[in-house]
Amino acid sequence: MALKILIVEDEVNGQITLKNIIMQFSSEQHEVAIADGVQDALRVTATFRPDLVFLDVHLSDGTGFNYLEKLDAIPFNLVFVTAFDHYAQRAIKFAALDYILKPFEPDEIVSSIEKAEQHLADKNLKEKIDFLFQQQEKNDKIILPTQDGFEIYSLEDIAYVMSENNYSIFKTRNGKELIVTKTLKYFENLLTNSSFIRTHQRYLVNVNFITKYIKGEGGFVIVLDQELPVSRRKKEALLTALSNKFLQ
After folding, report:
1. CA distances to 68, 185, 194, 230 from 237, in Å
2. How far is CA 58 from the centre of its chain?
3. Given pLDDT bands bounded at 50, 70 and 90, which one contains residue 124?
4. Mind listing the pLDDT tens digit for each residue in 62-113?
5. 92, 135, 159 from 208: Cα distances, Å
6. What are the structural domains, with CATH classification, of the chain?
7. How far apart (Å, rounded) are the C-alpha atoms in residues 112 and 129?
8. Which of 28, 53, 96, 160 suits 151 as a labelling partner, its CA being 20 to 30 A distant?
9. Average pLDDT estimate for 150-165
10. What phi-psi label fits residue 96: left (phi over 0), alpha (psi between -120 and 50 degrees) or beta?
11. CA distance 28 to 83
């Protein structure tokens, strides 16, 4: 299925590279349009009506977020494009939105196109974008995808995250469990500046929920009346984090 694809990117090299990947690696001959800024993107969107937008975070006259804010609706698949930008990546991940990093990997581009070809548009995209705007730099809440859509949780309500193969199981303050199809490593990187610490190969724990530490080779922590293991390699970092918490 041929798509209308809009590239919103202010760097000429980025425009050319992304367009060449689309044309060379896609199984269909897609129609590609290019915009280099917020205002140009709004103009092209109104006339071109894209099925898929690759949106750079930083543009010549603003940001990709500014472009989205000015749209009344978002009737297309959306993939953010960014170089290494810790703030932008964290914000996008907290909102459970799709993104790719520069330099571009053809497989990631093709995967995004195939998703759009299969009409797998995110039906919750507008709500996720609204969440992104509301959060701004706070990052005190997170969207967790579910089979039916998504749920929003405050980080202070998440007690720990447990790894189960390539899934992560979130355990909340009230004992609820939520299974998410991303690895524990993904969430460890995402929550690195929050109150979460990796205590074991299988566990990422909110230190605010730790009520007791039990000595041992690595030891154990008590969270929600459950005994969770601490690996020997993680023990020192955990004890430091706990000390810092009680010294605040």
Report:
1. 41, 17, 15, 10
2. 17
3. confident
4. 999 999 999 988 889 999 998 866 777 888 888 888 989 888 999 999 998 9
5. 25, 22, 8
6. 4-135 (3.40.50.2300), 157-247 (2.40.50.1020)
7. 18
8. 53
9. 95
10. left
11. 27
Q: Which two tokens stand for residue 80?
A: 């953010």
